[in-house]
Write a structure and sequence with these properties.
alpha/beta, eight-stranded parallel β-barrel, two-stranded antiparallel sheet, 13 helices, 10 strands, globular, binds flavin mononucleotide
Length: 315
């Protein structure tokens, strides 16, 4: 459907999903998504798409994340920029894509909708998306409020929808890829694992911190606000949880969780400067490969596991 070599996508990542990383993904045969809202304006997004095209001839897409916001960005203008730039696919996330699907389809853009529950996957299929990405409780960013891990969520979603489906959340190696395929997915989506590659525009100290971290080093913030986000556990995430758990309101944590502070983490290399997304797969990350090394390793190891472990039933 997407004209790529391997069944792997690089999900949209705020501040990180820029041309360097997305082009590297495309060059290694997987489908990467530029993060639309990382660009300060729709015009800047058009320029970023052009910059990415200069780095690769292979297909890539754009992620458009639509979240409730006090000062919403001009979503329709970003959507128009995506359509006019002629990218083949958009990854929508955060809200029901119903109003956007017809506009993207008229512009020849396929819609891969990322959601966190079976009911939302069914709804997305009903409104005409081309494929669904299903994000389990393990994922970085917004896992939803149902807390269903991939082991159940992926086959449950596979039972309920017919469009192609990508499993997301907690994937980082060949074992995860094969497990996802066995559970009924057509491929995997990764965020955190790609965050810890050479091409990710993130300070080296943050990548080293990710290598040191384990599966215990994430934290769920915004639970009391029913807008849960899984982030790297640090001084700021602990403060946010403490304030909200003791009855605080969003206003009381607004400054702590600001995007500007979060983006500084990646620039300064201070992991405690702000909030940054990371998933449970931190526990499986032990190095900082290039994107091509990572993708090659996943595919090569998947073949070995198929031959050496999964042939047990055939013998
Ligand atoms: C640093 C970072 C930023 C992210 N930003 C976004 C975003 O802006 N929009 C979005 O839809 N998903 C975002 N995500 C989620 C990823 O696209 C992907 O769904 C998720 O990382 C998958 O789980 P994994 O991290 O376990 O691989 C982000 C993830 C990370 C790690």
């Amino acid at each position: 459907m997407f004209g790529i070599e391997h069944p792997i996508t690089l999900g949209g990542m705020q501040w990180v999903g820029r041309a360097e990383l997305v082009a590297a993904a495309a060059e290694s045969g997987v489908l990467g998504f530029l993060s639309a809202l990382t660009q300060p304006s729709p015009e800047d997004l058009v320029k970023e798409i052009a910059r990415c095209r200069e780095m690769t001839d292979r297909p890539f897409g754009v992620n458009l994340t639509i979240l409730p916001s006090i000062n919403p960005p001009p979503y329709e203008e970003y959507r128009q920029a995506i359509v006019e730039s002629g990218v083949p696919v958009v990854e929508t996330a955060g809200a029901n894509p119903a109003e956007h699907v017809p506009v993207f389809h008229e512009g020849g853009v396929r819609v891969l909708h990322k959601c966190t529950s079976v009911r939302h996957a069914v709804k997305a299929q009903r409104v005409g998306v081309d494929a669904v990405s299903i994000d389990g409780f393990e994922c970085a960013g917004h896992p939803g409020e149902d807390d269903i891990p991939g082991l159940v969520l992926i086959p449950a979603a596979a039972n309920a929808i017919d469009v192609p489906m990508i499993a997301s959340g907690g994937f980082g190696d060949a074992r995860g890829l094969l497990a996802a395929l066995a559970l009924g997915a057509d491929g995997i989506n990764m965020g955190t694992r790609f965050l810890c590659t050479s091409e990710a525009p993130v300070h080296e100290r943050i990548k080293e911190q990710m290598v040191r971290a384990s599966e215990l080093d994430t934290e769920l913030i915004f639970r009391p606000l029913r807008n849960t986000a899984r982030v790297a556990r640090n001084a700021v995430s602990r403060d946010v949880v403490r304030i909200l758990d003791s009855g605080g309101a969003f206003e009381d944590v607004r400054e702590l969780v600001s995007g500007a502070r979060g983006s500084q983490v990646y620039e300064t290399g201070d992991p405690d400067h702000g909030i940054w997304s990371a998933g449970l797969v931190l526990g499986l990350i032990n190095d900082i490969p290039t994107v091509a090394e990572l993708v090659d390793r996943i595919i090569t190891e998947a073949h070995s596991i198929l031959d050496e472990r999964l042939n047990v039933l055939a013998n």
